[in-house]
Structures are given as structure tokens and as C-alpha cells.
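hey
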């Protein structure tokens, strides 16, 4: 069962459940670009308008990639994921964003790729207690959370190989992602989703 089929099959939460279960939407209008390499942070700080020190300390920010004349080319939301950085952008612009960021790379030790395995879910309402503080990000067994400030909205970036059809289903063989050294990496993950979720929150990024 795909994510879109899973969400479409869920009934709307009734009034009693609405206070205890967040609303859910599949944010397939967004793409995830992963930046990795030992100079990824330094390079992105020179390419984006936001202050990455806040991102490195658990925040997530919107930043603009500007031309040499200061003209805004594209807006992204950026968050740190381990040693990597994830940038959220409109799905139809991901390749153009990578091409634009690569323009000034020269010998910088940074690589960019669209994370095809990432699924983005928007949540609204009664967020679980395990979600980060407002304005912060954090990873748990469900994936990488980005909680918006001053609101009960959050984004969850979760791998597509997680099975959405049942609670607490471990999947321990995710697809590998090449590293700079050419060797694949993997992570053991586990997630749960409740059937009381309904569709409603669909952030731009």
C-alpha cells in the first residue's frame, strides 16, 4: 500500500478523537534535497540567506538562494540531519535548485542529491509529546520532525520503506545512500501511525 492510498483510506477523526489525534496530510508537493560532505555547512552558509548557526543548534529556517545581484532565485527550508543538511523545496524545482547551488561549488567538498526515499507528512493539532519544541527539529523512531514556531503544526520526514499500514512495524533493511567514499550507509528505523489521522495540513515548505 502506498502512502497516498494509506491516507485516502483513513476515516476522518470524529469530534472525540480530534482532541487527541493530529490531522495528517501527504506533502508530495515538496522535494527533499540532501547536502552532504565535510564542507556542506560552510558552503551552504555562503549560498543561503539564513543563519546556519541556528540550524546547527536544532532549529530549521527558511532561506533564500540569491543571485550575484541579490535577486532571490528560490526559497528553501533547511534542517540538519546528522552531518547532512536537508533542504525542502517545491518538487518541480529540485533539479533546478541543485544546478543553481552547484554553480559556485568549484573544489568545495559538498554534494547534492534529491532524496527519493523521503516521504513528507504534514501534521496539525494535538502533536505527540515526542515531537520537538516549537521552532526546533529532532529525530526519533518515526523520522525527522520539524515543528513550526507559534503553532501546532509540524513536518515529519520519514523514509518511504516504512510500512504505514500497522503500528510499530520495524523495517531494518532500508535502501543504501552512497557516501562521499562510495560506500553505502543505512539506519535501523521503526515507526508507528494511528488510524485516527485525517488529511488537512499541507505546508508550502
Amino acid at each position: 500500500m502506498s502512502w497516498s492510498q494509506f491516507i485516502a483510506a483513513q476515516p476522518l477523526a470524529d469530534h472525540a478523537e480530534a482532541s487527541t489525534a493530529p490531522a495528517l496530510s501527504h506533502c508530495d508537493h515538496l522535494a527533499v534535497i540532501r547536502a552532504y560532505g565535510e564542507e556542506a555547512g560552510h558552503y551552504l552558509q555562503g549560498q543561503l540567506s539564513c543563519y546556519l548557526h541556528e540550524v546547527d543548534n536544532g532549529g530549521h529556517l527558511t532561506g533564500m538562494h540569491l543571485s550575484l545581484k541579490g535577486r532571490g532565485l528560490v526559497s528553501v527550508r533547511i534542517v540538519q540531519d546528522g552531518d547532512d543538511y536537508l533542504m525542502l523545496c517545491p518538487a518541480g524545482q529540485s533539479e533546478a535548485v541543485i544546478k543553481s547551488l552547484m554553480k559556485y561549488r568549484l573544489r568545495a567538498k559538498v554534494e547534492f542529491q534529491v532524496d527519493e526515499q523521503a516521504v513528507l507528512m504534514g501534521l496539525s493539532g494535538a502533536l505527540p509529546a515526542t515531537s520537538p519544541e516549537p521552532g526546533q527539529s529532532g529525530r526519533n523512531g518515526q523520522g525527522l520532525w520539524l515543528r513550526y514556531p507559534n503553532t501546532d503544526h509540524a513536518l515529519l520526514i520519514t523514509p518511504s520503506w516504512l510500512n504505514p499500514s500497522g503500528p510499530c512495524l520495524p523495517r531494518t533493511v532500508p535502501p543504501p545512500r552512497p557516501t562521499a567514499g562510495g560506500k553505502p550507509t543505512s539506519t535501523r528505523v521503526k515507526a508507528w501511525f494511528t488510524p485516527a489521522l485525517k488529511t488537512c495540513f499541507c505546508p508550502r515548505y
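The first helix runs from residue 3 to 8. The first strand starts at residue 23 and ends at 26.
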